[in-house]
Amino acid sequence: MPFLNLQTTQAQTDKPKWFGLTGPISEDFPEEPDLVLTRKLTETLKAFNIYDTQLELQRREKALKRLESLYKEWLTEMCVRMNVPEIVTDNVGGKIFPLGSYHLGIHLKGSDIDVLCVGPGFLERTDFFTSFFEKLKAQEEVKDIRVVEAFVPVIKLTYDGIEVTDLKRSVPENINLLHDDVAKDMALSCVRSLDGYRAAEEILQHVPNTPTFRLTLGAIKLWAKQRNIYSSMLGFLGGISWAVLVARICQVYPNATTSTMVFKFFKVYSMKWPIPIRLRIDRCHLMPIITPVFPQQNTSVTVSASTFTILQQEIRRGHAISEEIQQKQANWSKLLEKPDFCDKYQYVLSFLKLCRHGETWPS
């Protein structure tokens, strides 16, 4: 869907700079009422206590540094075991890159951290999921560690009480991960490992005002979680989808303040969604939201007809309430109210999973 493609084409480089495929809808700067609404929104978000304290942020940073140190130790140990030349061992490197919301700078309280492990290409992915897994498992701070065979195989664990997800081995450290050529001759599993980092970095490079983008995305993420529509696993939208949607609004209203961004978000997406793009003969995607990196992928493939209807209803509700807020007939808290699940649905299914003592269900 062209409207949700964030990249600027080469043919546009001689034109006045803008951040997407099309120019801005409006370049108006905020007026005092807009700034007042943004301050009230900021206060509302703080009242929901959604952000980590400085101490919690320091704990997360410490955990990431320790994981990176363990990863570098493991790389050196593997070089010695494989008897590679000493100069290779001394320069094997190794780096961990945060992905997703943490990379975008809008990490909410209690969320896990997705990371990408980048190392030399001569190591096999199987080594990562066996040898490195065992090294992590031996650490006193590591709990609940497991390998998850998903669309992209990952290691999940809790380090010092902080949940870490999507720990992957990928490509040599000296490669420019943002260059499209890096993905052309790479195994599909490695390409998938890189997607999270590349997409987040491209999004940050294609929004005109990063602080405004982050605050807007934080508000939309809280709204989506409050309204129970933040989950790609359940057929709604995940973090990358919401980030692309917000980034596009930031592109076409480059000078607007956060409150205006939220209003425009609901106004634009409450309109009829573009005709679905048929990517395969046997499948029609209902809500195409495309990543801004090669190979471009639809981030909303799990959206079904029923969840699409719910998403539309919630966005329209958001649009109606945002208009009330602009007219001073409602406040931001109304937008962020949780629905009464039992009142909304007459019938529900409840599933109970049981396992033996000491065993865990895979995520």
From TrEMBL:
Its EC number is 2.7.7.19. The keyword Nucleotide-binding applies. Binds 2 magnesium ions. Also active with manganese. It comes from the Eukaryota. Its main location: nucleus. It is found in: Nucleus. Keywords: ATP-binding, Magnesium, Manganese, Metal-binding, mRNA processing, Nucleotide-binding, Nucleus, RNA-binding, Transferase. It catalyses: RNA(n) + ATP = RNA(n)-3'-adenine ribonucleotide + diphosphate. Mg(2+) 2 binds at residues 112, 114, 166. Its cofactor is Mn(2+); Mg(2+). Gene3D superfamilies: 1.10.1410.10, Beta Polymerase, domain 2. Mg(2+) 1 binds at residues 112, 114. Residues 20-207 form the Poly(A) polymerase nucleotidyltransferase domain. Residues 212-279, 281-338 form the Poly(A) polymerase central domain. Pfam families: PAP_central, PAP_NTPase. GO terms for cellular component: nucleus. InterPro entries: NT_sf, PolA_pol_cen_dom, PolA_pol_NTPase, PolyA_polymerase. One of its GO terms (molecular function) is poly(A) RNA polymerase activity. ATP binds at residues 112-114, 166, 221, 230. GO terms for biological process: mRNA processing. Belongs to the poly(A) polymerase family. PANTHER family: POLY A POLYMERASE, POLY(A) POLYMERASE ALPHA. This is polynucleotide adenylyltransferase. It comes from Kryptolebias marmoratus (Mangrove killifish). The lineage of its organism: Eukaryota, Metazoa, Chordata, Craniata, Vertebrata.
